[in-house]
Amino acid sequence: MITLETRIYCHPPIPLADISPLEMLILTNALECSETEEGLVLFTDFGPTNPVRVARGELIAAFRTSTQDAEDPLNIFIADRVLALQPAGCNTGEEDAMIDIDLSQFPWQFVVQGIVARSADLCEVTVIQWMNHPSQRLESFGASVSLITAKAIHHATSEDLLARFRLQDSALPPAASSAASPEADGALTGGAPSDPFTVKEIETALCIWEAMLYFRGLHQDGRPVPDNIARMSEVWDAIGWQAMRSHARQIVPFALDVHDDVFEDLEAEGLTFDFDFAPGFVETLLWSEDGTYREGEPEEFLADVMVAVRRRRQDVVARNTSNVNPASSQVDS
């Protein structure tokens, strides 16, 4: 098995005043970081660390001092997936005990997005990542770029970009006339109509697929899920992974139309596309081996999506309140 060397560099530096203690703890353990006059520079020459390993007392202290951001997705994630699973009381020895935080369902990029969403000055963070191996074999190197904004995390690998370039190139006219062809200019700027999927659509497909994987995992673990999610898992078992990926791709235009219709409500309530809308949308769909479909009139479906989105966020907050606060009180004592 080839062990790749992974290097990551992010720009611009993140203002220190925008970073909560909990975010600082996670980022500085997941990546190599350095503090400069401009802020925290995120980078690594070895690849991100997962799981993150921190002292229990250090995690609890960072969580408590970040309570002003209680509705931040990271706080909710840590409260629900980590602190809620810890014993209620502890002594000094237990405070020094190390805890592994699995970031596979909440990557460090999500932490950065939460900071960007709150910051008054930071509009975006760009991430450049490249991988290589001393063998330099074809399968041992590649690159990717990401743009993290308050609205979304846009991502493309070097293979994605090369595939787009090949599609655009195939639409160009013969070389003799390409210099004078307006179609060529359109292709170079990404405007060629032959490109089947935009970056926005690719991101949407990835968010939908991530939500599908999440719900399937819950069902396989025996956790309670809605009937239509159980049906999705049954369809998955019947038709296989490739067909399910195809279904995820096919519902992208519908998902974007629905998001456009509910965007103002999501924006007003501070709900995100990937963390809130995509799971709520997937949870509302009905499934068959031929694909997905909605039930009822369009207005009813939109209302059902928002109900699912709000219920999902309320469930997380409720678990946070019931599971973490009692534990915190006992730790204080």
Largest sheet geometry? 6 strands, antiparallel
Tell me the span between the first and last alpha carbons. Answer: 50 Å
Helix content range:
40-55%
Strand content: 15-25%
Sheet with the most strands: spatial strand order: 2-3-1-6-7-8
* Beta strand count: 10
The helix-and-strand class reads alpha+beta
- Tally of separate domains: 3
Low-confidence stretches: 176-195, 328-333
Could you spell the SSE succession in H and E letters?
EHEEEHHHEHEEEHHHHHHHHEEH
Number of helices, where a helix is a run of at least 4 consecutive DSSP H or I residues: 14
Average pLDDT, all residues: 81
Q: What is the CA-atom radius of gyration, in angstroms?
A: 22 Å
The rough form would be described as globular
Overview of the structural elements:
Keywords: Plasmid. Residues 174-184 have a biased composition (Low complexity). This protein has 333 residues and is an alpha+beta fold. The protein folds into 3 domains: 5-151, no CATH class; 165-196, no CATH class; 199-320, no CATH class. It is 53% helix and 15% strand. The chain is built from 14 helices and 10 strands. It has helices spanning 21-30, 56-64, 73-81, 92-95, 108-118, 158-170, 175-178, 182-188, 199-220, 227-239, 241-250, 252-268, 273-284, 298-332, and strands spanning 5-11, 32-35, 40-44, 52-55, 98-101, 125-132, 142-148, 153-157, 286-288, 291-293. The chain has a 6-stranded antiparallel β-sheet with strand order 2-3-1-6-7-8. Strands 4-5 form a two-stranded antiparallel sheet. A two-stranded antiparallel ribbon has the order 9-10. A hairpin with a 2-residue loop joins strand 9 and strand 10. Helix 9 (199-220) crosses helix 12 (252-268), helix 9 packs across helix 13 (273-284) and helix 13 (273-284) crosses helix 14. The termini are far apart.
